[in-house]
Amino acid sequence: MDISLQKVEYRYAAGSPFEKKAIEDISFTIPSGQCVAIIGHTGSGKSTLLLHLNALLKPTSGSVVIGDRTVKAGRKEKDLKPIRQKVGIVFQFPEQQLFEENVMKDICYGPMNFGVSEEEAKKRARYWIEQVGLSQEILEDSPFDLSGGQMRRVAIAGVLAMEPEVLVLDEPTAGLDPRGRKEIMDMFYQLHKKRNLTLILVTHSMEDAAEYADQVVVLNKGRKVHEGTPRDLFADAERLAEWGLGVPEVVRFQRLLEEKTGRSLPGVCLSIDE
Ligand code: ADP
């Protein structure tokens, strides 16, 4: 299932004195089965864009095509559940959304809310808890007795148990140490490869983008300023600094790309700040 944005604009509090244009003129397509990173500095519009990917926000103008559905400004939408099932979002610090008395109930909550039987939901919980690297024994525990890392995995299992075709990850490595970051990103990447799951990574980390994405979309001040492979992006190193993506990141990004491709890249401009 492809997702395509066509001239998307979104204004918060549209029509009020507090109106604020958060994104404008954004067009790009996320083809089925790809890993796409959406990167940008704080305030560049990433979160606003993310909420359009499963129709939690509707564009103020333009349209978002999600599989066979088009979400358009000024049109009343009926039954958005199929979209929400197909496009799962793992929000930042998802562990904060756990609330049930045990892990099993927490994972089953989403699927059952979408009409899946209790028996099937439990079956999925037993499957997905292992896919996120935890044992089935944990299903009877209270989520609040788990470690932070375990809680995050439980929350992710809850989104995966909806069996989405597209998984949107909002800063999935926020607050994790380097080892935890790698473990969680490798887990997502394996799911992406094994199940042909489309992965959309919304992040300010160029490292994650360089390491995992096929395509990178860069936002700056609410506009799309770049779209291409991580290598294409790197060729625009000077502009990365202009977009608030700093030189130390560019250098780390270069190193990562070199490690990944085994090839050295043309010299990076290190004098951006001069
Ligand atoms: P990012 O996720 O890249 O940090 P956001 O999408 O959160 O960017 O923000 C884009 C712009 O929209 C910013 O200028 C921000 O201040 C504004 N904005 C975000 N949320 C709201 C809101 N609920 N009401 C008004 N303005 C908002």
Describe this structure in words.
The protein is an alpha/beta fold. 38% of the residues lie in helices and 23% in strands. The chain is built from ten helices and ten strands. A six-stranded mixed sheet has the order 6-7-8-3-9-10, with helices on both faces. It has a four-stranded antiparallel sheet with strand order 2-1-4-5, with helices on one face. The termini are far apart. Residues 12, 20, 22, 40, 42-48 line the site of adenosine-5'-diphosphate. Its main location: membrane. Keywords: ATP-binding, Cell membrane, Membrane, Nucleotide-binding, Translocase, Transport. It is found in: Cell membrane. ATP-binding (A) component of a common energy-coupling factor (ECF) ABC-transporter complex.
Task: Tell me the fraction of residues in β-strands, as a range.
Answer: 15-25%
Q: Sum up the overall morphology in one term.
A: globular
Q: Average pLDDT, to the nearest integer?
A: 88
Share of helical residues: 25-40%
Kindly name the structural category. Answer: alpha/beta
How many alpha or pi helices?
A: 10
- Write out the distinct hetero groups bound to the structure: adenosine-5'-diphosphate
End-to-end separation in angstroms reads 45 Å
H-E string: EEEHEEHEHHHEHEHEEHHH
Count of β-strands: 10
Low-confidence stretches: 267-274
Largest sheet: 6 strands, mixed
Strand order across the largest sheet:
6-7-8-3-9-10
Rg, alpha carbons = 19 Å
What labels describe this entry?
six-stranded mixed sheet, binds adenosine-5'-diphosphate, alpha/beta, four-stranded antiparallel sheet
